Amino acid sequence: MRVLVTRPETTADRTLRRLALAGHDTLLLPLSEAEHLPIRAGPLSASAVVATSAEAFRALRHSPEALPSLVSLPVYCVGDATAEAALDLGFSQVRVGPGDAAGLAELILHDRGAATGILLYLAGTPRLPQLETRMTVAGVPLQVRLVYRMRPVVRPPGAFSAQVRAFSPDAVLFYSREAARQFFFEVAPAMLADAVRILCLGPRIADAVPPGCRHVEIAPRPDEDALLTLLDA
Asked: What is the Cα–Cα distance from 134 to 136, expressed in whole angstroms?
């Protein structure tokens, strides 16, 4: 099967290897790239760290002076990939959420009990406000520190759609709503074969797919293992 992968290049290597091992032909066409922002070292009053993307720890790797004050703290990670990035960086007290921000928020509140310490959220932009909203409603102090921003990959006009047409994918993998939005800004559904499968990590991503796409499928869980199992269905 010809599988088009739209995730950022820094996170795609493992995905491409898994697809190749499964016998698929792949094309990586990232729609966004991360800009890492400097993290200044300084006094820290946080009782734990929170991250909803592995990109937060890739950004932290570029600010080694900030690491010593953070790695000894407990860290709450949205899912397995984010937890793996935290462990690779030296964090040892890692709690893993179910793969989405809402579930991570409930894990934090369950663990927190009557504790009152500040949580440090290593955040990116754009992002959904689910975690921050839930913490605010629960009265949990959350310090948000912006450590990366995702920006569109710039290509010559028409280059992206030309690559998609030339590859003629059987399936397209979407890991974010913004990627789906950008993809269909460049590629009209009519440019794709009728049978092409649009595979989405979650329902909000699928909502960004235009109605002209006939075969839209949603992973049963918000993780890559579940997304890739759709290819075998």
From this structure: 5
The Cα 81–Cα 14 span in angstroms is 11
Cβ atoms of 27 and 163 within 8 Å: the answer is yes
* Nearest CA among 183, 216, 180 for reference residue 199: 216
Mode of pairing for the β-strands spanning 46-51 and 118-125: parallel
Task: Kindly report, residue by residue over 116-163, the tens digit of the pLDDT.
Answer: 789 999 999 999 899 999 999 999 999 999 999 999 999 999 999 999
Whole-model pTM?
Answer: 0.86
CB atoms within 10 A of CB 225: 11
Low-confidence ranges of the chain (pLDDT < 50): none
Residues of the chain with CATH 3.40.50.10090: 2-31+154-232, 34-151
CATH classification (class only), 2-31+154-232: alpha beta
CATH code linked to domain 34-151:
3.40.50.10090
